[in-house]
Amino acid sequence: MIKGIYTAASGMVPRALQQELIANNMANSATAGFKRDRLFIEHLDRSSAKPLPSDYQWQQPMVEEPYIDFSQGMLEKTDKPLDVALEGDGFFVIDTENGTRYTRNGQFHLNSIGMLVNMRGEVVLSDTGPIILENNNPNIDANGNIEIDGEAISRLQVVRFDNPQELTKTDGVHFAAPDGLIAEPAREVTVRQGFLEQSNVEILHQMVDMIDGFRQFELGQKVIQTLDYINNKAVNEVGRTR
C-alpha cells in the first residue's frame, strides 16, 4: 500500500509543476517575444534513470522536465520604425548590468542620448557595440542594417545557438547563455521592421492543458485517499486479534 501511495504522489508532482508553467505562460500571453515553457516527457531505460527505492519495480521510469518552446510566434504589424521582429532562428543581443542577454523581443526605442535600448533601458548591441542614432526614424533592412537618409549607421547583432535549450530564461523574454555555449551569427533569419513577434502561447490550448492537468492531479489525490483508507482498514480491523 505504501508503495502505491508513493507512486501516486510522485505522479502528482509533475502535474503541479505543469500548472505553474501554464499559469506563467498565460500571464505572458500578451508579452512580445515570450517563449512558453512546456514539460518534456521521456521514458528512460532503467540503466539511465535516477536511483529509485530498492523495493521499486517500475519497468519504464519516466522523467518530466520543463523546457522552453522556441517556436516562432506570429508577427504583429505596428508600423513603429524601432519595432523589429525576427523570422527564423535568432536572437537580438542586449547588454545588461548582469551581462549579455539574448531576446526575441524587438520593442526598442532611443534613450536621452540617442542610444538604442529595450523597454528596460538596456543597450541593444550591434556587431561593434552600442547603436547611436540621430533620429528615431531609421530604415532597417532584412539583414538588420540600419540606415538614415541613405547612410549606413550600424547593424543589429543577431545570433543563434546550436542548442538553444541550454539557454536559461532570466525573465519572460531574456535568456542567458552558460559558459561554453557559443553564439554564432544568424544566417537564415529575416529582420522585419515595423513588426513585433508575439508570444507563442495559445490560450485555448493552455486552458485545455490546465484542465487536463488538474483532472490528473485530482485523480492522484483520489488514489491516495483510497489507498490510505484501505491501509487504515488493514491496520485497524483486518489485523486486529480477538
Descriptors:
alpha+beta, 2 helices, 242 residues, 3-stranded antiparallel beta sheet, 7-stranded antiparallel beta sheet
Brief overview:
With 242 residues, this protein is α+β, with helices and mostly antiparallel strands. The protein has helices at 2-27, 203-238, and strands at 37-43, 62-68, 75-77, 84-88, 91-96, 99-103, 109-110, 116-117, 123-124, 139-140, 145-148, 151-155, 158-160, 168-169, 174-176, 184-185, 189-193, 195-197. The protein has two helices and 18 strands.
Q: From the helix content, strand content and strand pairing, which structural class follows?
A: alpha+beta
- Low-confidence region ranges: 43-49, 56-61
Biggest sheet character: 7 strands, antiparallel
Radius of gyration: 25 Å
Can you count the beta strands?
A: 18
User: What's the N-to-C terminus distance?
Assistant: 24 Å
How much helix, percentage-wise, in residues?
25-40%
Q: Give the tally of structural domains.
A: 2
Q: Count up the helices.
A: 2
SSE topology string: HEEEEEEEEEEEEEEEEEEH
Overall mean pLDDT score? 83
